[in-house]
Amino acid sequence: MKYLSFIIIALSIASCKNEPEAKSLSADEIINKSIEVSGGEKFERSAIDFDFRGKIYTSTREKGKFTLSRTSIEADSIFIIDHLNNEGYSRQIGKMKTNGLKTIVVEDSMAVKYIASVNSVHYFSTLPYGLNDKAVNKSLLNEERIKNKDYYKIKVTFNEEGGGEDYEDVFVYWIDKELFKLDYLAYSYNEDDGVGMRFREVYNERYVNGLRFVDYNNYKAENTKIKLTELGKAFEANQLKLLSKIELENVKVDLIND
């Protein structure tokens, strides 16, 4: 019996050795899977609009061309519309009902700020789409466990060329190892009004015409010595303070050439 047991153990070890090791995924592969479960190629042929903090945001993407816009309605029904597309930026002001919209000249210093503001809202609204842009650099960090779930952890930086005004910002994304959905993100920023970090927790997931949209709880670390990459652990330990909620309202999606 002892001899038989030894044979069984030996065969089990040999069997385990013959099994192929689980393939480790690269940061690119993880992001690709996350984009796929969030809507995939549908993002590339979509018309999206939503409301955010009293402003209307619209975007269209088709065959490599894109248009991002933000519409603000001021007193006396004055519309301010910021447009951003493959060709650049423009701003229109006027009354929509009387066809009184006029394109105005915007100083470069202000145009850069408007572009960053418009692009930022659209960027966060469609994550993880956009993380395969040419200016994006991705690196895989150590895996992490948050709220009893295992996550891939990916650091993202940007090239100066094509990375926008905030190319020095650094992001960290936590992607569910089982479902490949983005559940948390953190980022550092360096702007005129200050330097800091934020941590966001996804909630209110919904799919609209096949595209995934989420809202966020927006946190900050009161302990400024906490590193950006450690904000997930700080969140798990209840060391972050809730600042605000990032909520998209009235989300609509039309798929182009569907």
Describe the protein.
The protein is of the alpha+beta class and 258 residues long. It is 21% helix and 47% strand. The protein contains 4 helices and 14 strands. The strands form 2 sheets. It has a 7-stranded antiparallel beta sheet with strand order 6-5-4-3-2-1-14, with helices on one face. Strands 7-8-9-10-11-12-13 form a 7-stranded antiparallel beta sheet. Strand 5 (88-94) and strand 6 form a beta hairpin.
Task: Summarize the helix and strand pattern as letters.
Answer: HHEEEEEEHEEEEEEHEE
By DSSP (H or I, 4+ residues per run), the number of helices equals 4
What's the alpha carbon Rg, rounded to whole Å? 23 Å
**Strand content range:** over 45%
Main sheet record: 7 strands, antiparallel
Distance between the termini: 67 Å
Return residue spans where pLDDT drops below 50 for at least 5 consecutive residues.
1-21
Percent range of helical residues = 10-25%
Q: Look at the structure and give the mean pLDDT.
A: 88
Largest sheet: spatial strand order: 6-5-4-3-2-1-14
| Helical/strand content category | alpha+beta
From the spread of the alpha carbons, the general shape counts as globular
In total, how many beta strands? 14
